[in-house]
Structure formats: structure tokens, C-alpha cells
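This part of the workshop introduces the protein records we will be handling. To make this concrete, we reproduce a full record directly below.
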Amino acid sequence: MISYADLADDSVLILLAIEALIGPKLLQGVFSLRDCDELTPMGGDDFVRRLYRRGVLLDDPAVAEADAYFLKDGELWHKSALVRYFLPPDTLMGRGEEAFSLQRHRELTDAEALTNLWLDYSVADVMRYLHYQCSLHGQDLGSEALEKVEGAVRHGLRRYSVAQMWFIMWKVSKDAAALASRSYYSRESAAATIPTKIRKQLEIADQGSALRNEWTRPEPHIAGSLGMVFNDLFGLDEYSKGADVLELFASLSSQGRDDGVELSELATTFMNATLDGGKSLPALEAFADLVRAGLSTEDALWETINRNPALFQ
């Protein structure tokens, strides 16, 4: 059993997106990774596995496909594609619609979790578009190049919209295709320039060059159920600017703060309380993580205090 009330905000959003795909099977039955293929534009495997690693989802060997489980070095392993997952009962209310219904209306306040989930989802949305563009031009990016691209895209999405990043993907793929037509470039060497070209386009945009934001989603390129959850709960879509999204999530984390407290007073209280308790390092690490997630100094201070009360006792 698990406590639904203790679920992280991003876990709840993923569960809502899974429910939108499989309906009652989430609350009463079992499901597979294949059932979640339309969770995001790039599938749902990573998000389902995330919940499994957290213990939010469990697997049921009794209904798994043949050969789902095997021994390796004396330990029991499984093949994710063959197992069947289920949402365990809530510790207080058990399993079913009544227990889960409260999560549909819960207050979402964890700016860091929501920001990271939005970035994870949006990166998938942009990468799906890049793969589409690369397929049109016969371009193949290796794992190292894709890792660089994902890092650049994630950075860009903190400021720009998915649609604006699509425009960059279209441009760099087209430019790489033009390079490949030159005698001193092969298709492979031209495709290898794509990660650097993305970084360059972001630098140009950061210096004031406008990025087009009216780029449209190709017909086969779905938003996915997680995208629809973000839209239903927060009004977010491919045209939402990253800076605005991060500001929105930061504003949700303001619960529990005293708006009459000055920033300097708040910072002094923060430092004194953690120094007196010998907990300044973990408090500063938590604060730094929230700043990196896009929160302002004040929001990060309040969120650190609200989420880690033991550090300030």
C-alpha cells in the first residue's frame, strides 16, 4: 500500500495522464507499457518507469507475459515491456475511484517537480519534431549527438516555447541538409553539426533575435495525454513561453508564506535557523536546486522552508 496523499505532484500528473489513456484499468486492473504509448509524443516508457522506481506503481508477476522474469547473477530481473503494472491501494481508502478522486482536485504547489516534469515532457515534444525533420532529410544522429541536443533543448525551454524550439529544429535540420549537398560534406558529417547549430540559434535568440512562435504541430505528431493534462490544469500548450511557465509554477509554491516578511529578513531567518541547527549545507543545497529549477530567490527560500521544515527546527 501507498499513501496517495503523499504522492509527489509530478507523480499525480503522470497518473492522471495514464488514467486518461487506460481509464478504469489504472484503478481496478493492470496495464502494460504499450498501453501508455500515447502518454507523450515520444511514448510513455520513461514516465511509467519513473513511477515504478518510486514505488508508485508495482508489477504483478501473476499476470505478466511469458519470459517476463529471469534470473541474472542470482537476482530476479524483469523485461519492462512484458510485465504488468498496477497502482497499489491507498493506505486509508484502499483501491478504486473514491480513493483516487481526491488526487484530481489536489492543490499542486511543488514548483520544482512541476517544472522538471514540464521540461521532461516538452523535451520529448521537441525531440519528436526533430526526429521527424531528420527523417525527411535522411539524417541520423548518434546517441552522443542526441544527448547534446536534449541538453540544449532543455536549456532553451526554460525561456522559449515548444513551438519556438520546433522552429529551431526545422531550421538546423534544413541547414544541415543543405550542407550535405556540398562536395566537402557527407550526410553524416553534416548531421553532426546539428547540436552546435541548435546552440548557435539559441545564442542568437538570447541576443534579441525573435523566434517564430506560430509553428504548427504536424498532424501525426500528437500532444499526448500528459500534454492534455498540462493544458487542462494550467492552460499550457506548445505556444506557452518557458519563462512564463516557470513563473506560473513558482507562483503556485507560495502557500504558507507570510507576504509581510521582507526578503532580507527571510534570508536572515533562513541562515540563522540552519546555522543554529547545524543544517546549513543541506538547506543551501535544497535552495540551490530550486533556483536552478527556475524559481526566484524569494520563492526558492519559501519553498525550501515549506518543503523541509525539519531543517529549520
Q: What stands out?
A: Residues 256-312 form one domain. The chain is about 55% helix and 5% strand. The first strand starts at residue 58 and ends at 59.
